[in-house]
Fold:
Amino acid sequence: MAVLVAKTALLLFVLWTEEIFPSWMKLGLSVLIPLLLAVFAVRVPRSGTLVDRTGIRIRGISRTRRLAWEEVQDIRSEPLRGADLSAFLPEAVAYAYLAGGRRKLLLHVNNEGYDMDHEIAVMRAAWAELRGTGSVPEAPVA
Structure:
């Protein structure tokens, strides 16, 4: 977070010291950039995947997506393409597969810092128990 604040301060410094920007742009960006930084500082730590008796809630920065257990066809991890190019990316992430082959990324369910396979196993056990008796998964998701 400190790095983000320092980069924001540097950006605002360059904005105000260069003469190429009109004053209305300087003023507007000086208000907008710290406001966006504050929104990210509050919303990013609150984002994630929450599991309860009704289903899965995927809480992002701007919205929350709810998946009922009956909608979910599969929950599994997949390797993240391009993860070997950056030290900051997880090697694998988890997805919830829905009817029709659509998939939703389960935010913060990855192999960074904890046992992702255990987390997926717990979610799959809850899904198997709570999806309902009349709900059977469709054909396996490719």
About this structure: Strands lie at 48-52, 55-59, 64-68, 72-79, 92-98, 103-110. The mean pLDDT is 87.
